[in-house]
Write a structure and sequence with these properties.
The structure is a single chain. This protein is α/β, with parallel strands linked by helices. It has a domain of 96 residues. Helix content is 51%, strand content 8%. It contains 17 helices and 7 strands. It has a 5-stranded mixed sheet, with helices on both faces. The chain has a two-stranded antiparallel ribbon with strand order 1-2. α7 packs across α15.
Amino acid sequence: MGHVDKQTREELISQNRALCAENAALKATLADLENRLSELSAEVEMLRDKLSGGGNGSSAAPFIKPNRQQRREAERAERKKRKHSFGRKRDVATEEVFHAVEHCPDCGKKLSGGYEQSRHQVIEIPRAPVRIIEHVIIARRCGYCGKVHVPKLGICDGVVGKMRLGVGLMSLITTLSVAKRMPQRAIQRLLEGLYGLHISIGEINEVLHRVSEWAKPTVAQILRKIRGSPDVNADETGWREDGINGYLWSVSTGAERFYYFHRRRAGRIIRHILGSKFEGVLGCDFYAGYDWYLGPKQRCWVHLFRLIDKAVQTHSAAKVWADKVHDIYKAAKKASRRKADKATRVLLREALQEKLLTIAEPYQKDKDAPQHKPAKLICRYLSELFTFVEHPNVASSNNAAERAIRPAVISRKISGGTRSARGSQTKTRLMSVFATWKLQGKESIAACAEMIVAANTPVANCHQ
């Protein structure tokens, strides 16, 4: 009070006006806060009502999890309506069987007439015996010249040389053995169980050898297309022939696959497969056997990352370095997807190589560093790591060759390999044609039958 008593009248009036203005501002702020509080309270009540699933305005009701029917109804409400149904279409019926009640079960009166109430389809396979066609050859003598004329049976009559098995049966046996990887004894039991047909293991084996001989022109055509392809993926895996270790080589494109067996794993084998005129991009792993090819190569980044991940697992300190390599690879993938001319792509490739060399070179000679092995590999094959940037149609990994060789690995685990050089040749030829047909979307049995017919047609034999 003493302080107020010392103020003049003008100072008190000025202070009173300031307090009045501040009071008005606080009242306005309070009104805004009360309005905001009422809005938030209404929003909270609405959310509680939604969570409780009730409509009576009770905010204290607990959350009840919707049951399966309620969830399905909610999904149907949210799901967009389709323009047409995607249900399974009915197959064309080969026969119809009508079912009707003959007598009333209540009074026993005979029933007649009626209407179609519904239909039910059942798919069944026939268990009919095989067709054994006996061709009777009749010789006729010409009454004018006296010569005897005997008809010659050929593929148009359903006869393949001196074989007693037809084209369809040989195609089925070959498909089961190669495409389905069934052992020969399993094929024997299947034919006997389905058709009552007993075929010896030796005859099944002979069928495979014969079909392999008829597949020669097809395999030669596959190899010609591979050698003329702009990019090829190659890989090899172990294979046993008569208990002795060897190697099964695989060379593939987007539409063809070729397999070749040899005792050795030398670079001259892949050189022999591709030929001296191959000029495309060779996709491969880091095996030194592919170094002979002086043309463009793309080394597999997946193999490189496996080696880097192994170093990171043993030494966590290498993770920072590994992340830098991953970042460069991501930048390279992004650059390969850019629309650019040849000169720009070459510049991008050189820039990426320089970046990778900068982080790999310090560890190239440091044998104690966990980054030594992958860094040494990078420095050695640096020019072959970014080919996919310059050639955008080339993959950065060798996964195509890995997928091509995988069926052979499974077959090796089942059979253990082949027993003779003829068996290895038969195996590789048939694997080549069946794998190619699969890539091209052809049905194996039909394609094999077509190949057998073409190989035994006189016109085809003349062209060979």
